[in-house]
Amino acid sequence: MAEFSCHAALRLSFILFNYFCLNFFYSASSKASTKEMERIDNLFYSYGNRSSSMIDPEGIEALCSDMEIDHTDVRILMLAWKMKAEKQGYFTLEWRQGLKALRADTVSKLKKALPELEKEVRRASSFVDFYSYAFRYCLTEEKQKSIDIESICQLLDLVLGSQFRAQVDYFIDYLKTQSDYKVINMDQWMGFYRYCNEISFPDHKNYDPELAWPLILDNFVEWMRAKQAAQN
């Protein structure tokens, strides 16, 4: 009986020790998380407005200046994607989860997090979402569903230029010289990304206009083939 009581006492002591250790760990972790969120909020309000809980374009430019990058840098668009920013040129308190995920509660840490963010965006599993987000982010008016050609050309160069330089350059050239389209919609935007990934360039041997391609890409391929024929 005494042996049983001893074992029971040891078991109870072990349970209590684990309980207090876990309680201490979670308490310390919770306090650290709260402190981190406070620093993230302080960083937000150092560029934003407390009354509107928003960082406006001027605040974003100041943030870019402090990170020593241009406000037109594609990494700012990547940052907006990570933060799930809904309105171009503005960050709201969705900033919290974005910076928490990046483990960045200072400007210095945010700047150091950009290379990893860029790697995340460039992964195939993330890039399609980022690419479609880039289009939606540029829809600045309510119920707007398309973007003007000049803006699309700039966006294509920014988002896809480093991956598909030749395709982007030729498509931009086509967009600037054609007169049938004044704007580009989401279906056409996503169609061009599919084209870059699936079609043999520049010979277009596997391009089949009978498949479900946006008409603008049929026209682009015809334009490319005519251009190549004239050069031969």
TrEMBL record:
The keyword Membrane applies. One of its GO terms (biological process) is protein neddylation. The keyword Membrane applies. GO terms for molecular function: cullin family protein binding; ubiquitin conjugating enzyme binding; ubiquitin-like protein binding. The chain crosses the membrane at residues 12-29. GO terms for cellular component: ubiquitin ligase complex. Residues 35-225 form the DCUN1 domain. PROSITE patterns: DCUN1. Gene3D superfamilies: Cullin, PONY binding domain, EF-hand. Keywords: Membrane, Transmembrane, Transmembrane helix. Pfam families: Cullin_binding. Neddylation of cullins play an essential role in the regulation of SCF-type complexes activity. This is Defective in cullin neddylation protein.
